Amino acid sequence: MLLAILFGMSITVQAQIVTEQEDEVDEEDELIVIDQSGNEEVIDFPEAMTYDLDSLLNEYMAKTYLSAEDCNMRNENPYYPEEVYIDRLSRMPTVMEMAHNKVVQQFIDRYASRLRGTISYVLGAGNFYMPIFEEALEAYQIPLELKYLPVIESALNPRAVSRVGATGLWQFMLATGKQYNLQINSLVDERRDPIKASYAAAHLLSDLYKVFGDWNLVIAAYNCGPGNVSKAIQRSGGSKDYWHIYPYLPRETRGYVPAFIAANYMMTYYSQHNICPMSSRLPAKTDTVMVNRKIHLEQISKVLNIDMEMLRSLNPMYRHDIIPGNTEPYALRLPQADITRFIEQEDAICNYRASELLTNRIQVEVNDYTPTYYHKSKRSYKKGRKGRAGRHAKAHRGGKKSAARGKARGKSKGKSSGRKSSKRRRR
To answer: Which region, left, alpha or beta, applies to residue 68 given φ > 0 means left and ψ of -120 to 50 means alpha?
Structure first.
């Protein structure tokens, strides 16, 4: 059953799949590798790693708690021979295989040069999110190095949305999110919730490992779906080695595992490449309270005097700033010091500008007044019927005329044939 369910997700799982027929990709979004035959191979770059750094820094957490302070390191990427990279990868304390090859090296080089600022941002933002990821992965007994998967999935942006609609830190597609019990509707999208999405992702990774039994294949399936990985295995002759089935995978997935290995490398050896993490100040402790009434975040913001942007950042799952607590109890995350204040002033919060902020009416009156144009439309209707009757009459009259013309033609033909026959007789 698990196998059937997972294979049914082959199109909808996670992924930022880019088909060969898509428009031309900016060269920043791809890598070119020369194969053994000297041919160029184009590999798609993870979409999240191409996000504009300024847009990432515009997120509340980044603006409030991250800062790019002066760094004593030189802003240049030093050269190392291939043997150094191989040795460093081999010494990383991971369960997963961290192999080196020319494709992995291309990703490391890109991260350490053009994407230095993004790596610096991710290192700083990781202070907020890595403990959440580790806790979820540990709950499912999954290798902790997979905590770096959201680095290439979303660049640690909880509001990230890919070209194909994958959403959140772990980039769940809608169908996959629902399959793993993430609630998604017009008001709530739990794919954006760091905690719930992390546990759902750990569950999905655990299920994929039960199918493939190899972590490289697992994250490949996370990207393109288990169906695509299974087809690649079949086309390769049954091999379950990611690097052997590599040519049979979708174009972006060919770069997905190398990008993941390179991300693990950079998050471990960033200082060797003169990259400084952004300084982070962890936000104040937070806690949750269950809400069983419909509340707008602005009501909470105004009554408790809490920054609206901070509320949105702490509660990214609410798509339109509305907590539909009247449907079922929902969690509201607040700074720990404000939990008691919320409980004490909940009635005042719910009553604050409720008619302006919560505009959907529960009950409405139907206007049963008879408008004046009703009679006009009735006359028009009669007129229309008369018009239609007139058209039928005309058609009927037209039919009689046609019949008369037909008889006349018949008579004229008869006369004509009679004249011809008399001439024949005279001859």
So the answer is: beta
CA–CA gap between residue 284 and residue 302 (Å, rounded): 20
Q: What is the pLDDT of residues 232-281, one digit of tens each?
A: 999 999 999 999 999 999 988 999 999 999 999 999 999 999 999 999 99
The catalytic residue among 47, 145, 153, 252 is: 153
Pairwise CA distance, residues 290 & 326, whole Å? 11
Q: Give 332: exposed, middle or buried? Use CB within 10 Å, 0-12, 13-18, 19+.
A: buried
Do the beta carbons of residue 18 and residue 162 sit within 8 Å?
no
Under a CB-based contact definition with an 8 Å cutoff, are residues 298 and 252 in contact? no
Residue 73 has pLDDT above 50, yes or no: yes
CB 277 within 8 A of CB 330: no
C-alpha pair distances (Å), 47 with each of 136, 161, 206, 248: 24, 10, 24, 21
Helices (H), 270-372: 297-304, 308-314, 339-344, 346-351, 354-357
Q: How far apart are CA 121 and CA 124, in angstroms?
A: 5
Structure tokens at 100: 């080196």
Q: 186 CB contacts (<8 Å, ≥6 apart)?
A: 319, 320
d(CA 332, CA 325): 10
Q: Using alpha carbons only, what angle is made at residue 237 by residues 260 and 258, rounded to the nearest 5 degrees?
A: 10
Give dist(CA 68, CA 89) in Å, integer: 28
> For 6-21, how does the pLDDT look when each residue is reduced to its tens digit (9 = 90+)?
545 443 444 333 333 3
Which residue(s) pair with 280 in the sheet? 66
The two three-digit tokens of residue 376, written as one number: 């006009």
Task: Give the model confidence (pLDDT) of 188-242 as tens digits.
Answer: 999 999 999 999 999 999 999 999 999 999 999 999 999 999 999 999 999 999 9
Catalytic residue check, 153: yes
Count the helix, strand and coil residues of the chain and give each as a percent rounded to the nearest 5: 55, 10, 35
User: Among residues 349, 341, 347, which one has the least CA distance to residue 297?
Assistant: 349
What is this structure's pTM? Answer: 0.79
If phi over 0 gives left and psi between -120 and 50 gives alpha, with beta otherwise, what is residue 329?
beta
> In this structure, what token pair is assigned to residue 257?
């595992």
